[in-house]
Amino acid sequence: MGSIALRNVSKVFGAHTVIPAIDLDISDGEFVVFVGPSGCGKSTLLRLIAGLEDVSGGKILIDGKDATELAPAKRRLSMVFQSYALYPHMSVRSNIAFPLKMAGEDQASIDRKVADAARVLNLTDYLDRKPRQLSGGQRQRVAIGRAIVRQPVAFLFDEPLSNLDAALRVNMRLEISQLHQQLKTTMVYVTHDQVEAMTMADKIVVLNKGNVEQVGTPLELYRRPDNLFVAGFIGSPKMNFITGEIARGHGAHTIGVRPEHIDLSTSAGAWRGTVGVAEHLGSDTFLHVAVDGVGTLTARVGGDFPVRHGDQVYLSPQEGRVHRFNDEGSAIR
Amino acid sequence: MATLHTRSAARAMMAPSVVLLLAWMVVPLAMTIYFSFLRYNLLMPGMEEWVGFDNYRYFLTDPAFFQAIFNTLAIVLGVLLITVLGGIGLALLLDQPMFGQGIVRILVIAPFLIMPTVAALVWKNMFMNPVNGLFAYLARSVGLPPFDFLNNAPLLSIILIVAWQWLPFATLILLTALQSLDEEQKEAAQMDGAGAWSRFTYLTLPHLSRAITVVILIHTIFLLSVFAEILVTTNGGPGTQSTNLTFLVYAQALLQFDVGGASAGGIIAVILANIVAFFLMRMIGKTLEA
Ligand SMILES: Nc1ncnc2c1ncn2[C@@H]1O[C@H](COP(=O)(O)OP(=O)(O)OP(=O)(O)O)[C@@H](O)[C@H]1O
Ligand SMILES: [Mg+2]
């Protein structure tokens, strides 16, 4: 029903190549997250799939059929925009009903579908309000409501949560995930927040400068990053990278160790260092340790690890958790 | 103006201009009202006497008065129709990406910068003149008899001239409003399956409603008192066919030297303008608050 495939898709704005050439398969019912740093072409890729931009080359297949030249409305995709893009002078009801009205459905079925969507999204009490009388989260839900009533083959989300505050974001994240479980429709979700990517995705596509760096499940990317970029991008706090003598000792140009894979001790260990900053989060403490001859490493320890600024500590990477990379940045396996 | 504080601050800020405006208006208004109750003819200086409502009676029963009212409204409505519809159309066109956009936009604005008298004379002599005018030339070139616009359709001609002058202003305001329409909304509508016409009616037009209201308001204010265009083209004629209220007052005062009658006409014009303003304000209040 809702599979999407990109074949050699590229996009050029003037002289500026945003997407060199991408091949990608999204199978039916999957929750796929595009993640990458700002300006890497996530939105552009999503808009290419939506049909809001024309491809410069390649093919887009939706449901197995060539959709490269189809108008946006004909692709049977729904999109939720970062700015919500609600119609400001229409009530919530009319906003949600708009796609149905445009599709020429009869009033009775429109009413029924709008009521259904409103119930799913807890919007029943707000149907007669205008968008500007709603909170950010409610607006977001209206935008989602407008997207689901059409029963599209796939949903496209462009950073839908980035305008919400942290607590609401966690909430909406959950709601969107639940919606996906309920509807089982393909969802393509763009974010630059790797926590969103990790928590929601069935499959993450890591983009960098318009290239796909790696595709995989969140845990695959976390456990077996293909290259330095993915290793550094997935995981929070960032993976520590060490080059030079120590890396050569491991037979690599660069080695990477995640902060949570470093054991700390006050008496003995592989590397000795001085605690620079200790960030106490309660459950965890992130220590920034200046290690002699290596630089600053971040380590995650339990919330009650008794160190403070200026203390001497010893760090040891956990056995088997050291990622090795060659001089081109690719993983050595 | 959300809080009580900002509201009273706003009032205090507005006070000086309100006072100034009042003084500016009250003095001439009082004098006009006073004159309107006098027999005051410039040909008979020193013979002023109190005549009560006689001036009003003469003015209101003058057949030219009703013609003038009709003409005034016809000019306002006719020009509004052309400028609003034409302005929306032009704004939509100018909003499209095209070659030489900057120059085209300046050209479109140009008529607004031309003085009303000059514009009207250009139209009268270069376009509508039945002998030398461009329209007459065009008509002859396809074998039709030339049409004498200013004599056979004086009101329509004036409406055309005034509309030509005011079209750029409407276009400009509507264009800026159009450009502030959120791109993502248009794209959302596109994905929702709305065609170009639906996007226009459901998205663009509601978005433009404020700008349209502003255009209507500003235009009405100026169009109620169109004068120069009439003076230099038709002189109110033939007969009174293109005389509006402003021109009638002028004719009364400076062609018939009847200051008293003209003052009465002026007061009537003020009252009519207020009636129009009342309806306009209600309309505006509704759109601007929404
Ligand atoms: N219409 C356009 N014309 C020219 N360049 C564009 C256009 N749209 C995007 N770009 C460029 O393409 C690149 C990718 O933009 P895009 O919006 O896809 O980034 P993004 O990954 O969504 O970033 P963010 O996370 O900040 O939203 C950017 O360098 C941007 O400047
Ligand atoms: Mg983006």
List the helices and strands and how they pair.
The complex is a heterodimer of chains A (333) and B (290).
Chain A: E1 4-13, E2 16-26, E3 31-35, H1 42-50, E4 57-62, E5 65-66, E6 77-80, H2 92-102, H3 107-120, H4 136-148, E7 154-158, H5 166-183, E8 186-191, H6 194-200, E9 203-208, E10 211-216, H7 218-223, H8 228-233, E11 240-243, H9 245-249, E12 254-257, E13 262-265, E14 271-280, E15 284-291, E16 295-302, E17 312-317, E18 323-325
Parallel strand pairs in A: 3-8, 3-9, 6-7, 7-8
Antiparallel strand pairs in A: 1-2, 1-4, 4-5, 9-10, 11-12, 12-18, 13-17, 14-15, 14-17, 15-16
Chain B: H1 4-36, E1 38-39, E2 49-50, H2 54-61, H3 63-95, H4 101-109, H5 116-127, H6 134-141, H7 149-152, H8 154-179, H9 183-191, H10 196-223, H11 228-233, H12 245-255, H13 259-289
Antiparallel strand pairs in B: 1-2
Helix pairs in contact in B: 1-13, 2-13, 3-8, 3-10, 3-12, 5-8, 8-10, 10-13, 12-13
Magnesium ion is lined by residues 42-43, 159 of chain A.
In short:
Chain A has helices spanning 42-50, 92-102, 107-120, 136-148, 166-183, 194-200, 218-223, 228-233, 245-249, and strands at 4-13, 16-26, 31-35, 57-62, 65-66, 77-80, 154-158, 186-191, 203-208, 211-216, 240-243, 254-257, 262-265, 271-280, 284-291, 295-302, 312-317, 323-325.
The gyration radius over C-alpha positions of chain A equals 23 Å
Report Rg of chain B.
23 Å
Shape of chain B: flat
CATH architecture of chain B: Orthogonal Bundle
Question: What CATH architecture of the largest domain in chain A would you give?
Answer: 3-Layer(aba) Sandwich
Strand order of the largest sheet of chain B: 1-2
The CATH topology annotation of chain B reads as MetI-like fold
Total tally of structural domains of chain B = 1
